[in-house]
Amino acid sequence: MFLNKLPASKILQKSRQNPLQSLCFPFANPPYTFTQKSGYVDVYMKWKKDSYYDSIEHILNSIQLKSIISFKNCIAQDPNGCIPISAVSKRGLEMGVSMRVSRFLRLYPSIFEEFTGPLYNHPWFRLTPKAAEIDEEEKRVYQNCREDLICRLKKFILMSKNNVLPLKIIQGMQWYLGIPDEFLQNPEVNLDGSFKLVTMEDKLEGLAVECDEKFMSVMQKNAIKKGVYSCGTMEALEFPLFPSKGLRLRRKIEDWLMEFQKLPYVSPYEDFSHLDPNSDISEKRLVGFLHELLSLFVEHSAERKKLLCLKKHMGLPQKVHKAFERHPHMFYLSLRNKTCTAILKEAYCDKASIERHPILRIRRKYINLMKESEVILKNRRFGNGLAHREVLVDLDLDAADGDEREIPKC
């Protein structure tokens, strides 16, 4: 798909120059090339920064928020509603925290309240009233949107080659899918009868879906609403494009993109084994897969390196990450937080086209608490500075020499 190919005209020209080669290959274009042709165009553009996507709060704070909610769950699940620091001090790497856990928890005083424990004067932590209130609301959202979350998980598994994925892969995508921990801790009880625990070839525990229901992608649903799609076999369907300001494509790339839009659309829930992996149709199927995948995610974004673990089980090409670079009108790559995050533009430019995940509102409330923590810490530093200045002033006034000193203005 992403390998350089020579145009047919150049192949024919070379065959004329070499008669021996023309005898071996009498046809410049074999019949099968007309079925799934590949008009590869090398799409390479300098990365263009877009402040709009770089400043989306729930994406910008996603890494820290994931760790915060993991620790929050540890505290909320405890029968006493509080835990000693020793219970989580050695789980920093597991929770995605590179610093000391106690230091991390103290960075968010509006979420985690510290107090002295009953034994050995160890620091203990519990949730603040505001955090506990949001936690209860989060539980209600999970309960009310149970069917929707199960459907999202089902779609995610049905996008795989054999309708089965290892549990560790699903757990790695759990944050993006917005699935609560208890769903995967006991799937036989929390999920419906279409899910089944299986043992995969490499002796990994997997979760399979047996379902006769045919799902439609977000692309297909929106096209049907607009009256431009009738669910026909190999029917063309154009992707919605959202160019960033100042991002211009070369004429050759624009022409290729217009032809690419006219190619048949293959749903990520359909069998694609008959497609030539080096054809443009296969690339369009890949772009449609990434579009549907990011549509299922809470933030409609994901760290690009985290998607690489899906290659084997989803049947993706080796250089799947290149698809984001080749289609900048659909995806944006944010380089904030020392990582590369792939963002689906349509979710933020046309909010009516993609359903908003029910748990996103809860995450935004936690982010507001994170902001409150910054204010609290800033006030503490400012207060300590004022106290320190007052001590210095008193010492100066009590000095034996009686010299008046001017207090510097802040």
Automatic annotation (TrEMBL):
PORR domain residues: 48-374
Gene Ontology molecular-function annotations: RNA binding
Superkingdom classification of source: Eukaryota
Pfam families membership: PORR
Protein name: Protein WHAT'S THIS FACTOR 1
Source taxonomy: Eukaryota, Viridiplantae, Streptophyta, Embryophyta, Tracheophyta
